[in-house]
Each structure stands twice: as C-alpha cells, then as structure tokens.
Amino acid sequence: MLANGDCSSTELTEHYLERIARLDKDLNTMISVNSDDAISGARACDERRAAGENSPLLGVPMVHKDIFCVDGGKTTCGSRMLETFHAPYSATVVNKLNGAGMVMLGKANMDEFAMGSSNENSYFGAVKNPWQRDCVPGGSSGGSAALVAARLAPVATGTDTGGSIRQPAAFCGLTGIKPTYGRVSRYGMIAFASSLDQAGPLAVTAEDCAMVLQAMAGSDERDSTCSNQPVPDYSKSLGDSIDGLKIGVPEEYFSDGLDDGVASAVRSALAEYEKLGAKLVSVSLPNQGLCIPAYYVVAPAEASSNLSRFDGVRFGYRCDNPADLEDLYTRSRGEGFGAEVKRRIMIGTYALSAGYYDAYYLKAQQVRRLISDDFDKAFADVDVVAGPTTPTPAFKTGAKTDDPVAMYLNDLYTVSANLCGLPAISMPCGEVDGLPVGLQLTGQHFDEARLLHAAHRYQQVTDWHQRMPAGLE
Ligand code: GLN
Description:
Radius of gyration: 21 Å
CATH class of the domain at 9-241 and 445-466: Alpha Beta
Bound molecules: glutamine
Shape: globular
Low-confidence stretches: none
Strand content: 5-15%
Strand order of the largest sheet: 4-6-5-10-11-9-7-8
C-alpha cells in the first residue's frame, strides 16, 4: 500500500498507535510507546518516499523487544533493575532497521532479562495471549508475539536464547525465525547467555520475516562473534518449488510429553510438505533427552557472569541508603532482580564454582558437542529437520509459575538450535482447542534462505498463518 501510494506511513503509524491505545491496556504487550517520535519518523519516511526512495520497509511501523538498546529512550529488559535506564547508544539491529526506514512505535514487554517461557517474569506485568486471554503468550519475547498477533504492529523484533522467538511465535500463531548464531549482531542487545543469544523477527508470514531479517543481518565490526559471510537475498527464491527437499523427522520428537493435538497438527503439516514434493526421511537425535539439562546449566552459567555488571553502581537500580559497599551490592541486586533471575544467577554461580565446574559446566559443554554431532549426522542425509516447536499449545496463566522445571520443559524442542548455533523457524500449522500450534524447521548453519523458502511454500498452500484472534477489530 505504501509503494502504491494507497496510504502514507503517517496514516499507517496513526492506525497502529490508535490500536495500541485502545487494545493494549488489557493485553499489556508494550513497556513503552513512543507516539510523538513515531509520528515524526513516519513523516520523514513519507518525505523520503515522495523524493523517490522506494525501499520495501520504508515507512513500515514496528516494535522492538525491550532488550535492544535505543538511544534516547528507556531500555528496561523487563526488569526493575533497568526501569529507569537510558542507553547511551543504539543496538546495531536498531540502527539497521532505522536505516531501512522502519518506524519504531515503542518497546515490547518481555520476561525479565529474557528468562522465561511465559512472559510472567516481567517486572511490568504478565502479557495476555490475544487468542485466549487467560493463557500466556509464551516467552521471553511474549510482548513481541502478542502484539503482532493482535495486529498492534505488522512486525516486531525478538531474541532467542533457548526458544524465545519460536515458542511465543508458536503460542500466538505467528512466523518467527532464530537465525544462525552470528548471523545478526548482538551489539547493544542486553546479554543473557552470550554463546546462545540471537535476534530475529516475528511476523505474520515467512515473506515478512525474510524482508526484515534481510535488513537485520550482516557483519558488524562491533561484535566479533558476528559473521562476515555475505547475506543472501532471502526474498528472491521464496516461491520456487521445494520438489525434492529432504525433511528429516526425528523419532525422538514424537515421544512422551508431546500433546496429541500438537502431534497430529505437525503430522498433517508434514503430509502437506509431501504433497509439495518434499521427501520425509526418518532421522535420529539420540541425545535429544539431554538438551534441557545441558541448556539449563550453560544458560544460567553465562547469565550469572553477564548479570554481574548490574551491581548498583554502573547501571540502573540502586538501593536507598546503603550502609557500606557490601550492603549496596547485595540490596541493589536483591531488590532489583526478580525471583527467576536470582534462581538463574544462583544455579549458574554454583555450576561455575571451583569443585563443581568440571561436573556441571564442563560436562554440559561436552554434552552440547554430542547434540551438535547428532545434527551433523542428520544433515548428512537431509536438508532440514522438522518437528513441533512446543510440546503443548499455550497454557493458562499461573499454571506453571510454582514449578520452574515444568516451565523449563516447554523448551524441549527449541534449545537444541541454540546449543548448536543452528537457524530454526516456527510457523503456524494448526489449532488445538482454538489455540495455534507451531511447526519448527531447523536448518544447517547459514541456511536461513532454505527455511524461509520452505515456510513460504507451505504458507502458499495453507491459511493457518492468516488466522487472527477474534474480538480485536
Ligand atoms: N525459555 C528459555 C529460558 O527461560 C529461553 C529463553 C530465551 O530464549 N531467551 O531460558
């Protein structure tokens, strides 16, 4: 519509801001809304378009997860610790999407420091799933997912350390891609677990994800872990045939713990792929059962190290009237962090401590290698690996808050991609009792184009991705 001149970026931005003002009081998907900056940004985009510029994202509104530093505004990471923190610079992802002409409407709610699978760990309150408001939207990018599902913006950024793009995308009926580790710069993205964190888009379609990932990806001299491999044109071959695509189906994915409705939606999606010419090949990931234990040692270990910088001195929250330096540290951290963040810091510190390092952290890193070897073996025979994104559809708010291990088990199918640095996409493939179900495709390193292509082909012959939650007119 923007390209045809059917609407202006200003009109589009006003449309979404009006929806946010009307619908977000209940959904709570946003931590901050930047109406004035968004409108002036949109006007500038309209002028650029009037002057002849026509890049595809110019003037398209979006929302950033509140984990990305944005110069000039608040960046809270969902925490009391950073409630009043103003970043002195913007993340590379923010600069890149700005440069592409996207208009930031505000910052999305999230689990505190991206730790969680339900968005119930946010200092700014839980987010409601627009499909069923007594259910969680998933996490940690729960605000990003719920707001796109409610059409408060056409696209949002997320980050994924163990599933936080794909799991909320699955719970909210969206398409979301976690790129290969190193495909997108982590500069200015508040670190949770540095060897696992990656940023990516959440949108309605794979086609939209392709356009936004295109603008996000690429080398960055400010992040030494960011790859300088050239970024292919993700939109170019989306519509090509997938005849002959070899899809690996791990038997381990269809075992205990998988909801029957989710299993049958995923099986139907795989049958659809066969109709499109893909070939299903049975593969085995023998160490699949070790993914959750390995992840929940490595991620907290890295988190305990990363979060040591929040000491009451350098960033954000500081307690009142500290008696001495020790008191300043302990009370600032005690009052600034929520329960789950403290749990992770304690687990991680324990796993890294002298005497336990070999037994836990080192062992987890060795297991990580075994998991990676399983995928390498599978990829000798297949192009992508397919399965459910989550073991169940969205669950009720409060259902798992008292049982951290039950909460961690949500991440059963998502953490392996992070442990191995592989790209993975989730797309809607069915419904169970009115709640969306996600199909996950995992690819080889830097094979995002194939994942987007396969997802797009599926979306050309199905309409799950076009379904919207009711009552949000
Ligand atoms: N749910 C996982 C966790 O709590 C993953 C979070 C994420 O990907 N940021 O660690």
